[in-house]
Amino acid sequence: MPKTTTIGDQIRPLSRLRSRHLLSVTDLTPEEVVLILDTAEAMREVGTRPIKKVPTLRGKTVVNLFCEPSTRTRTSFEIAEKRLSADTLSITTSTSSVVKGETLADTARNIEAMAPELIVVRHPASGACQLLANICNSRIINAGDGMHEHPTQALLDVLTIREHKTKFTGLKVSIIGDLLHSRVLRSNVLLLKMLGADVWVCGPRTMMPAGIDQFGVSATSSLDAAVEGADVVMMLRIQLERMRGYFFPSLREYFNIFGMSSDRLRRAKPDVIIMHPGPLNRGVEIASDVADGPYSVILEQVSNGVAVRMAILYLLAGSEEEDL
Amino acid sequence: MTATKSVGRQQPIILKGGHVVDPTQGVNELCDLRIANGVVEQVGPDLGVDGAAVIEVPADLIVCPGFIDMHVHLREPGQEYKERIATGVEAAVAGGFVGVACMPNTNPVNDHRAVTEFILRKAEEANLAHVYPIGAVTLGSKGEQLAEIGELHDAGCVAISDDGYPVADALLMRRALEYASMFEMPVIDHCEDPSLKGEGSAHEGYYSSVLGLRGIPGEAEEVMVERDVTLSGLTDGSVHIAHMSTRGSLRAVRSGKDRGINVTCEVAPHHFTLTDEELSYDTNYKMNPPLRESGDREAMIQGLVDGTIDVIATDHAPHHADDKTVEFEKAPFGIIGLETAVPLVMDRLLHKGLISIGRLVELLATNPARILGLPGGRLAPGSPADITVLAPDVTTEISASKFKSLARNTPFDGWQLRGSVAAVLIGGRIVYTNEDIEAVGVFQQFSPSVSS
Amino acid sequence: MELCMPIVMESVRITRALMRISHEIVERNRGIEELALVGIRTRGVPIAQRIANNIFEIVNHKIPSGVLDITLYRDDLMRHTVGPQPVLRRTEIPFSIDDRRILLVDDVLYTGRTIRAALDALVDFGRPRAIQLVVLVDRGHRELPIKADYVGKNLPTSIRQSVQVRLTEVDGSDEVSVEEVS
Asked: Of A154, A268, B224, C68, which shows the fewest CB atoms inside 10 Å?
């Protein structure tokens, strides 16, 4: 129930995020999702100004802890933080098993000693953000942990969909690719289901997560069935090293059966939109003419990313402090 | 009263009036137990007291043959920061065990007699629970070349195992079964197909998918249990399936037993109490085999009830907090179990009416002793006076910070369980009394202060 | 005290005040083409729109109009929050403010902090030639050195009182009332 309060004589409806962190899409209620999307729309406008900065997070420190290479997400967060005038600090580490450096727990304790308000974390191990949340007092934003979740990606995906479609209920969204290893898949399935979409997932049987039927989605290995009448088609990246686990025989075969070409796209609705979290493997999961074609909203996803991340930083940094 | 009287060697003891249970003797009633010179002299009603020290055991306490945990990791030599033999045996008696069989995956691996003798010497210095070393099947447990099994047996090993790893090569397993049978030792196998296990860290199912953890399918275990049952049949050796966890494995063991094959198996308490539904990124829930689905848990309970499962063994695996406070996929597998097993068995099996007290004794004492060829597990005259006394109606609150073990890696911290260990005697000597139980006062006048 | 809220301006008076202000604006600003209106969310927006319409009636010239959300510039954001974050809405200023005379419009002028935030925001959009402040009600109790150039009504109040502005576009009716806040 939104409370109202008087600031000066202006009465505004108020709301906040209940959860201390954003580790998973399940930390949000549907109302909070809408709040984030609405806030992101407002934040988007800041990027159109001559001076792309607002003083909102002035004096707040945000640490970006990226233990996995990622230019795109890290830059997106850094831009978002700087637009809000926060002081940002990026720590990138490589987790080579050969070089045994500091444990994640010790890295967390060291960062905690600097008392940043927010820590944005990307890590190759599922649950790494939870470990940080257990140790640090700062608010933790999950920028991708292992195969678990990538909540800000799902939120920017949903913002992009909202711009093109009138409602989520009954919207057929098909997510295609390496389902087993994809954190983008997990976050998107959870979020789209929360908003009432009709979610389909498609990939080789070797890459179907166990218990997929319990996620409330339609699972298929038929690309045509997934694309048939789809409103949104989301392609996932295929990583080359998956061939080593005997997941599929070759990239060529993968593209023939599961790759999105304009031909296979024909079964979708005429106003379908094509999405991809990036980076693209052209000719592997998606053909260039589809990626660059009229149905593609891939670049919009990127610009929405900054707005969504600004919204989350703003909403988390200002969230009510618990009385200790 | 702190003065301890020395008993055992000099003066006989009579445990008078407790509820004595020994399925091998058909005893399950209130009666007396007479101990002298470290062995059981007699069990029966109204035994003569002449010259013996009398302990009036309250009728609600249960007196059983001492429990033996046949799957324990004591970590010494090599990883003393996790556990030492001295702390391990202290944890054992506090948990109600008079003996533990320790796995060879120490550093160095117990694949030659010097390590076996070291372990036995350390156990003797600690002078608490019996320690029965299990020797390695292969050198370094690398799965390549047989260890000198005859010498290990001679040095005091009671079984062989490469636990931590399966004996992956079928021919090697065959030979190990044939060879070990000459010494009447079982081969204890950690059943898991390494390629199916891959880099998994949790049971492959809905919950591992939700958490984004690589899964280990139940079939990775089942496939190897089937193989081992078949090979045991081929060789007339005896295979013992370590830490069984799936319904498929149970089915394979049952089928083997039906065909008359020499196969025995054990289950750990976490596999009949927890499931993968409990999973989070808390590494106190990470062990191998992992927590399985509820159908598998039900199957384990069924196997305990119908006799297919022979033994409850803890797979006590101590790890230091630093090693466990890491990303889930990086954490070592394993939880401790010595100080939680018996209350769990009493609360979840005995008090739920699933097993009788006689069956409980079979699972924790009689069968482990029989499988490993040990002298205990029964209260027949001449058996060692190794006794576990239970207080079945006293609640245990699991408090990891108070454990005698050096380690704290348990998912059961804070659990309230109906059933407690009251006292433990080894060779007629009282080595543990539970100070939280008033009734145990009758034992305390004889006890060296080893209690909690 | 009284339970009902005394109405200090009813609909007709509001309309007249805004028309008077619109005339004052035209009178004091020689170059109408340089003018632009920026309404502060929420109720500054419909007021700005009405002024734009009035000016169009007076001189037959349409002055551009924009909407400013000052949430991100407030000085009490992030500071120990008594309550949760206010909801952020879009700012839309679809014209360049460089070299223009900006008429900043709000419903009530009180401590002046909202206007300070608005000035900070405008400065990020460009460099206007001048900024003038238009308010429907000035209730006193300034905490910063801010003064309105055009005022609909001066309304001396005590700090224990709250001024409520209702506008048809937002609230369904036009009125300004004062109530005791305990």
From this structure: A268
Of C72, C110, C114, the CB nearest to A54: C72
Please report residues of B whose CB lies closer than 8 A to that of A128: 327
Question: Do residues B385 and B39 touch, judged by C-beta distance below 8 A?
Answer: yes
**Pairwise CA distance, residues A208 & A215, whole Å:** 12
Whether residue B329 and residue A104 make contact (CB cut-off 8 A), yes or no, is no
- Domains assigned to chain B: 13-64+383-444 (2.30.40.10), 67-372 (3.20.20.140)
For B329, name the nearest residue in chain A, comparing CA atoms only: A125
The residue in chain A having the minimum alpha-carbon distance to the alpha carbon of residue B211 is A148
Looking at the partner chain, which of C77, C90, C120 has a beta carbon nearest the beta carbon of A42? C90
Please write the tens of the pLDDT for every residue from B340-374: 999 999 999 999 999 999 999 999 999 999 999 99
Taking only residues 74 to 93 of chain A, the set having a beta carbon closer than 8 angstroms to any beta carbon of chain C reads 84
Residue range B413-433: mean pLDDT, rounded: 96
Distance from CA of A65 to the nearest CA of B (A): 15
Contact indicator for A258, A285 with CB cutoff of 8 Å: yes
Strands A10-13 and A4-7 turn out to be antiparallel
Q: Do A15 and C87 touch (CB under 8 A)?
A: yes
* CATH number for domain C7-75+92-180, candidates 2.130.10.10, 3.40.50.970, 3.40.50.300, 3.40.50.2020: 3.40.50.2020
| Domains, chain A, ordered by start | 13-149+304-316 (3.40.50.1370), 151-302 (3.40.50.1370)
A14 touches chain C (CB under 8 A): yes
pLDDT along chain A (324 residues), means of 10: 34 63 96 94 90 90 92 95 95 60 88 93 96 95 96 98 94 96 97 97 96 96 97 91 79 93 95 94 92 95 96 84 38
Per-residue pLDDT of C122-159, as tens digits, reads: 998 999 999 999 999 999 999 999 999 999 999 999 99
**C75 vs B34, residue with greater confidence:** B34
Inter-CA distances, C85 with A33, A79, B372, B432, Å: 15, 22, 68, 60
Choosing from B69, B111, B163, B315, which is the catalytic residue?
A: B315
Query: Around Cβ B196, how many Cβ atoms within 10 Å?
Result: 17
